[in-house]
Every structure is written in structure tokens, then in C-alpha cells.
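Sample pair:
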Amino acid sequence: MTAAASMEDAVREILSSARGGVVKIVVVGEPVLRAPAAPLVDQLEIRTLERLVEVMRATMHDAPGVGLAAPQIGIPLRIAVIEDMYEVDPEMAEARERTPVPFQVLVNPTYTAIGDARRSFFEGCLSVPGYQAVVSRPAAVRLECVDSNGKEIDEIFRGWPARIVAHETDHLDGTVYIDKAVTRSLAANEVYGELWRDRSPQRAAAALGFELSQE
């Protein structure tokens, strides 16, 4: 059996486990989240890839989240989906530069920082359920990849959308957000919601005893 055939079978098996179009999200501790994902070339039949995208989108919405990488459902391929069309508090959206992100499929994505500016905010991860932590990320990134139809994407993302792109692409390199987080900022979701859901993490930094990077 070829590697491509083996991957096709493995993906089909995971997709067959879907209930209501949703599959189980893998959590930290699973090796698939810590290994670089393989570039998607020709391992999957077209219909299998289409079904994978459908299931990833449904699973992301069900969680709910704004992005999901294939390793998060146990598939070691370099593909992710992103979408952020949620209604959020206008003041919070302005502070975090959070603007709508239409649904996109990212195949073999890479990103590079645009300039030196960075932003620090709390973020979470579907594969690290129950927690939030502060992560410093580039204020703007350039995304290069193709979509599921092979169309090239070369796009600049700024603010919160840049954070989503970086977070999901990191997954494909075997990196989870807690690897880049300020560890003293780690907060359970209920504590974050009660105490630290601010426009910026400055008050949390003072109370929890961590420094924010110069931005």
C-alpha cells in the first residue's frame, strides 16, 4: 500500500466517525499535535478532500471556534480552515482589531510577519480546552498558500485575523499556543471571563505578575 493510499484510508476512517457532520477534536498530549504536518499534495481524492473541508468547518462551528487545523482532528496534513463572523462587543472588537473573516481553506500555508509591531492578548485553543493565556503575536502577517481548489492565496492579515492565521498555521508546524504563551497569564476560562475579559491584558499582567512584551 502506498503512503497516499494509507492517508486516504486514514482520513476516510476519521470522517466516517462524524456525527452530525462533527468529529472529535484531539487535545494536547496526542503526538499528532506535536509533529509537523505533511504538505497536502495528492494524498486525497477530490471528494475526500471536499468532505474533509465540510467536516472541519462543521467541527469548528460546533466547538465553537474561529479556526481548526487538520491535526486537531487527528489528520497530519497541512490544511486548516478559518472563519470569524461572530458578533462581538464593539469596544472589544476595536481594541483587538477584530474584523470579520469569511470562510477560507488554507492548504500548505506559511506566514511571515509584516514589520516589527506585535500585539499581546489572551487567546485559547480547541485542543487545550478550558484555558486562556496571553500570547504576543505579529500585528500583521502575510499569508501564502492555496485553497482547496489549488487557487493561490497571497494576502495580508492585520489585527485579530492575523492572530487566527498565525495560530492555525502554527498547529501545522507542531506548535500549540501555550508554547508561545506567557505562562503566568494562564487562566481557566471561568476566571478569565470573570476577571480578565478586558480591552487589553495590562490589568491581568499587574495582578498575576507577568510582563507584556514591548509593542
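Residues 3-208 form a domain with the Peptide Deformylase fold (CATH 3.90.45.10).
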